C-alpha cells in the first residue's frame, strides 16, 4: 500500500460516521509542517499568516508551539476580532479603509496595544485621523516595502503590485511623516517577496520554465537582500526603536531568515500545504488540509459524479487554481466539464471501485480559502477524529 493509499484508508476510517461534504486537517501532518517551518526559520520567530489558516483553534495550536510568535492578519475587522479573542500581537498585512474599525481601534487601549496597521501612503494616516471619532489611543503602524524586482531601468517588473514604496529614501520619508504625526507610532517594516515565496520553481514537465524561475528568484533574492538592508538602516535612522522587520513567505523561509536585517518570518500556507506548494525545491511538506465530496452517481464505466467541488482559488484563472482530486489516486476531471458548482464528474480506472456514498478526497489550490467553503474542520490524529472546530465561516465571520 502506498503512503497516499494508507492516508486514504485512515481518513475514510476516521470519518466513516460523518457525511460528506466535509473538510479535515490531519494534525500529524500539520504539526510536522509547523516543525519544518521552524527549522527553516533558523531561530527567527515565525509570524502566522491567518488568511492561510482561517480557524482560531488552529491559530492557537500553532502559536502554542516554540518558534511561532504573532499573527499576520488580512482585514482590520479580523484583526480587531482576533485581538478581542485574546491574541496579543496582530499585524494587519494590508492597508485598510475601514473607518469604523479605526474608530474602534483608536478608542480601545487593549485593541490599540495588540494591533499594528499597515500603511504605505500619508493618505492612510489622514484616513485614520479622520476616522478616530474622538479616540485618543496611539495607533501602531508598519510600513510596507515593495519587493518587486525591476530590470531594464524599470521597464520590466517581476513581483506583485503592492506598496509604492520601493527605495530607502521613500520609506524614510514616510517614516518621518509618521514621526511628525501625533497619535501614531512606527513599530515595523514588512516586505512580502511573493515572486520568490509564492512561485514554485520545480514545475513537473516544465524544466525550462523551472530553470528560468530559479534564475529569476536567485537574482531577486540578492537584489532584495541588499535593498531591504538599506531600507532598514534608513528607517532606523528615523525610528531607532523599530520593533520588527518582517519578511518572507512559505516558499522562501530559509532564504529570508538568512538576512541579518530581517527579525521575523511570515508563513501560513506551509501549515496546510495546498497543491500550489508542491512545486518547490526549497522544501517539501505534507498535505494537511483536505476536503471530501460524496459519490452520488455512476454514469457509466470509468466515471463517477461527486456532489459539488467547484472551489477555485483566487489569482489569475487557470487549471492551477482548481482543486485536485487526490484520493483515491488516479482520478481526473472531465475536460469538458471540470469541477462544477453542484456536481463534478471524475474519470479514471479508480472510479470503477467507488460506490454511491463513498468519499473522494480533494486538495484545494490554496490554503485558507478552503475554510470559506466549510463551517468546521474535523481534526484527525491517527485514524480518528479527535475534535471538530469551527472555521472563521463557522463562527459567522466572513471578512472578505
Structural features, described:
The protein has 400 residues and is an alpha/beta fold. Helix content is 32%, strand content 24%. The protein contains 12 helices and 19 strands. The strands form 3 sheets. Strands 1, 12, 13, 14, 15, 16, 17, 18 and 19 form a 9-stranded mixed beta sheet that branches. Helix 5 (99-107) crosses helix 7 and helix 8 (168-180) packs parallel to helix 10. It starts with a helix and ends in a 10-residue tail after the last strand.
Q: Note the beta-strand portion.
A: 15-25%
Tally the beta strands: 19
Rg (C-alpha, Å):
22 Å
Low-pLDDT stretches are: none
Shape: globular
Number of helices: 12
Mean pLDDT: 94
* Share of helical residues: 25-40%
- Could you give the distance between the termini? 42 Å
SS-based class:
alpha/beta
Instruction: Describe the main β-sheet briefly.
Output: 9 strands, mixed
Labels describing this entry:
9-stranded mixed beta sheet, single chain, 8-stranded parallel β-barrel, 19 strands, 400 residues, globular, alpha/beta
What's a quick, concise take on this entry?
The protein is of the alpha/beta class.
List the helices and strands and how they pair.
Blueprint: H1 3-14, E1 22-26, H2 27-41, E2 46-49, H3 56-63, E3 68-73, H4 76-84, E4 90-92, H5 99-107, H6 109-114, E5 115-119, H7 122-131, E6 139-144, E7 149-151, E8 156-158, H8 168-180, E9 184-191, H9 194-197, H10 207-238, E10 244-247, H11 253-257, E11 264-267, H12 269-272, E12 289-300, E13 303-307, E14 324-327, E15 332-333, E16 343-347, E17 359-363, E18 376-381, E19 384-390
Parallel strand pairs: 1-18, 2-3, 2-11, 3-4, 4-5, 5-6, 6-9, 9-10, 10-11
Antiparallel strand pairs: 1-12, 7-8, 12-13, 12-17, 13-16, 14-17, 15-16, 18-19
